[in-house]
């Protein structure tokens, strides 16, 4: 029997982070003690104040059946309280919040509710692959807008051609940004809101994955300035080292949230009730977030100092657990990544998470991304290897 894949699957590029995982496995099979800064998956355990209660929560819900598609009332209220506490934003948990199975599924499926085949979606590059793949699987067309160093890696929305802005239905933004680590200033955010409203474009703001990881000032949520025409995506994966729990939420314009709910209820059965209760506990705590920030800042400073000792330019970012490291003059990001692999350090080449723009610019070509997720002793070993063995 001949098995044929759909055009969407056949035409899909390989998921960048799955390819990095494969490279790590190959190195380990060769006996190399790998220090993996490639995929952004925290290795620090979920905080004990969460895990210590899990057994009780599982037992409590052992006959609870399917969870709510949109999240329990208690969970949605906890999300609203978090947004009120952190940003002074009032949200109606009934109409302006919906739970998600982490951010990836929410990001990927979101375009299904708002675009038709051949509709245009503006995506940042470099950027999280599901912005693009979710658009493509929904039948939409991706317009890549570059994150450039000269713009401090902010989308230059005023340079997006008028005919693109007129056709676009959604613009994806991601600040604090993966991979560049930069935060969005309030004035830039206000300008984007005005531009998007003028062009009738939905702003899909993937802000809540890293918004609690900052080293200067905490970035404001875009919802602090306006709700209409805007949806935000939040996750506990990085805030509380809960990547495997698959829990998060979306918040914003009630009409957009309503459309998202219609998509979601046709695709999944919701996050388990005991995980939602664990997430409520996590959202109520800020002490762990502070401890986590200090640990990431220490790792960040160690790696930057080591790379600077080799003459590399310090990254510009002030948030997230990523370093967007520029390669030396005359060297590509892929070449720098290969140099690091030679000493058992795995990073993500910038070109693996960027796409060329219409004018043939690849904004990730000169960069590599460090995800500061290895344990502290591994980070210190990476520093030793960089200082002693990295030849560039």
Describe the overall structure.
With 392 residues, the chain is α/β, with parallel strands linked by helices. It is built from 14 helices and 12 strands. It has helices at 7-11, 16-29, 48-51, 54-60, 73-87, 104-109, 129-137, 162-167, 186-198, 254-265, 273-283, 287-308, 333-341, 376-389; strands at residues 35-36, 97-100, 120-125, 141-146, 168-173, 202-208, 230-235, 248-252, 322-326, 345-346, 348-349, 367-371. The strands form 3 sheets. It has a 7-stranded mixed β-sheet, with helices on both faces. α4 crosses α11 (273-283), α5 (73-87) packs parallel to α11 (273-283) and α12 (287-308) packs parallel to α14. The longest helix is centred in the last third of the chain and has 22 residues, at 287-308. The chain is globular, with a radius of gyration of 21 Å.
Fraction of residues in helix: 25-40%
Cα gyration radius (Å): 21 Å
Provide the spatial order of strands within the biggest beta sheet: 2-8-7-6-5-3-4
- Main sheet record: 7 strands, mixed
> Kindly state the mean pLDDT as a whole number?
92
Instruction: Name the helix and strand elements from N-terminus to C-terminus, one letter apiece.
Output: HHEHHHEHEHEHEHEEEHHHEHEEEH
Taken as a percent bin, the fraction of beta residues is 5-15%
């Amino acid at each position: 029997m001949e098995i044929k894949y759909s055009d969407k699957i056949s035409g899909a590029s390989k998921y960048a982070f799955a390819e990095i995982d494969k490279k790590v496995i190959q190195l380990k099979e060769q006996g190399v003690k790998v220090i993996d800064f490639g995929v952004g998956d925290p290795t620090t355990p979920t905080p004990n104040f969460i895990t210590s209660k899990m057994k009780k929560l599982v037992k409590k819900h052992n006959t609870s059946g399917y969870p709510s598609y949109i999240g329990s009332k208690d969970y949605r209220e906890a999300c609203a309280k978090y947004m009120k506490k952190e940003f002074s934003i009032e949200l109606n948990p009934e109409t302006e919040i919906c739970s998600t199975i982490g951010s990836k599924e929410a990001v990927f499926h979101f375009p299904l509710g708002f675009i038709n085949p051949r509709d245009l979606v503006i995506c940042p590059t470099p950027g999280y692959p599901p912005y693009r793949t979710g658009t493509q699987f929904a039948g939409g067309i991706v317009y890549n807008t570059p994150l450039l160093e000269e713009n401090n890696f902010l989308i230059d929305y005023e340079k997006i051609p008028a005919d693109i802005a007129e056709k676009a239905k959604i613009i994806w933004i991601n600040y604090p940004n993966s991979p560049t680590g930069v935060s969005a200033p309030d004035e830039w955010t206000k300008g984007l809101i005005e531009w998007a409203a003028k062009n009738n474009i939905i702003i899909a703001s993937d802000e809540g994955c890293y918004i609690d990881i900052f080293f200067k000032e905490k970035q404001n949520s875009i919802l602090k300035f306006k709700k209409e025409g805007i949806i935000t995506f939040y996750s506990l994966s990085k805030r509380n080292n809960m990547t495997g729990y698959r829990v998060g939420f979306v918040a914003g314009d009630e009409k957009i949230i309503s459309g998202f709910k219609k998509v979601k209820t046709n695709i999944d059965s919701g996050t388990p009730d005991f995980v939602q209760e664990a997430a409520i506990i996590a959202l109520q705590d800020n002490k762990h977030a502070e401890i986590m920030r200090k640990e990431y800042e220490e790792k960040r400073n160690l790696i930057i100092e080591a790379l600077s000792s080799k003459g590399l330019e310090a990254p510009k970012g002030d948030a997230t657990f990523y370093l967007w490291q520029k390669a030396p003059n005359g060297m590509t990001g892929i070449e720098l990544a290969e140099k690091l692999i030679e000493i058992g350090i795995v990073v993500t080449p910038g070109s693996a998470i960027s796409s060329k723009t219409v004018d043939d610019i690849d904004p990730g070509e000169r960069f590599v991304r460090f995800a500061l997720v290895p344990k502290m002793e591994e980070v210190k070993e990476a520093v030793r290897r960089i200082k002693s063995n990295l030849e560039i």
